[in-house]
Amino acid sequence: MPHDITLIGAPVDEGQRRAGCLMGPAAYRVAGIAAAIADLGHDVEDMGDVSHGPLETATCPNAAVHHLAECIGWTRSLAAAGQDAMARGRFPVFMGGDHALSMGSVAGVAAHAAAIGRPLFVLWLDAHSDFHTPLTTTSGNLHGTPVAYLSGLEGFDAFPAFPAPVPPERICLYGIRSVDPAEHRALKAHGITVHDMRVLDEQGIVAPLRGFLDQVAAAGGLLHVSLDVDFLDPSIAPAVGTTVPGGTTFREAHLVMELLHESGLVSSLDLVELNPFLDERGRTARLMVDLVGSLMGRKVFDRPTRSFG
After folding, report:
1. Any catalytic annotation for residue 3?
2. I need a labelling partner for 270 at 20 to 30 A (CA). Which of 107, 135, 148, 256 fits?
3. pTM metric for this prediction
4. d(CA 105, CA 82)
5. 4-300 has which fold?
């Protein structure tokens, strides 16, 4: 069924230290994301780029944490934008921007889910688990903390209280292949489902994902998908500052998107960590837009032949 899609630019660059992710929303627009979605029969509105608004003083006991005030500002503004879009019956697509934006996007989606009395599930397509807190991160990069935030872990006192923490059984980390020891211990302690690349190599792409989607369907839940560029193998998606070898291939990634479309369960989407400064003639931005097309209903036999000559 056609959706009413709202594009929300989230030029968040402060969740890590490598400049460039703030150009992500513009790159998606140049790569034709609005037309790619509209051509599939969906209504598309572009709300432009959100700003983090006036900043308030914020402190953290961990001296490594940087740009705390900015990340708090982004969390507030993106949560408001996402909640407003969903309250209007629309499907928000948050175009980032680094993964710190998901603290705001998921907060807004969670607030809406709580307001209508439906459970929220989260599918995290990423090389990393992003399960640090501001107190445990050694890099100080807050793009590595959103899953801990949405799970309701302690250490986020400076942030707005998460509206309805997502229980561990409703979170699926999929495609993971870079987890440090502290995160590994925390994930085990909280019982979050982790389908790392070894699981996908052994069981295939389809079975673990379908198992999670069956849970969402059985609960009548809303599904938020957070798609990080580094979910993809860097050989096909170089425009990310946190490359990890061994990611999903072109065909595997499209299969994931097509399965998500066929499920009819996805209600909101993040596109994160695109750094156009690191791209090769826009190839990563175009691939991400192509994946959005698959999520929105494009089939493999609909793809045109491309010439780069």
Report:
1. no
2. 135
3. 0.96
4. 6
5. Arginase; Chain A (3.40.800)
